[in-house]
Write a structure and sequence with these properties.
The structure is a single chain. By secondary structure, the chain is mainly alpha-helical. The protein has one domain. It is 89% helix and 0% strand. The protein has three helices and no strands. It is elongated, with a radius of gyration of 15 Å. The model has no long low-confidence stretch (mean pLDDT 89).
Length: 94
């Protein structure tokens, strides 16, 4: 299996994990105060946008040239870091 395919498979697995984590956060949010809901709803919406952005970048990565895939990978890694950081930030608010 080539490096790009392995990387895409790994990202797909991370997306599934993040979907699960976001669902759990949304469930916790339902039990929170209105003040917490307002702030965290915004953060969860941001998470979902970042996740969709990551999915789009993965599709671009699948069809990219060897020269472009390294640059695209760097962009993906930045989005990954943002998603992880946002999830941890939201978790810390509960």
């Amino acid at each position: 299996m080539n490096e790009r395919k392995e990387y895409i498979d790994k990202l797909s697995l991370k997306l599934k994990t993040w979907d699960s984590e976001i669902s759990k956060l949304e469930m916790k949010l339902k039990e929170s105060s209105d003040e917490v809901k307002v702030n965290l709803n915004k953060r969860i919406a941001e998470l979902n946008i970042k996740k969709e952005n990551l999915k789009n970048r993965i599709e671009v990565l699948k069809g990219s040239s060897e020269e472009a895939w390294s640059e695209i990978k760097n962009g993906i890694e930045k989005i990954e870091d943002e998603i992880k950081e946002t999830i941890e930030n939201v978790k810390s608010k509960f």
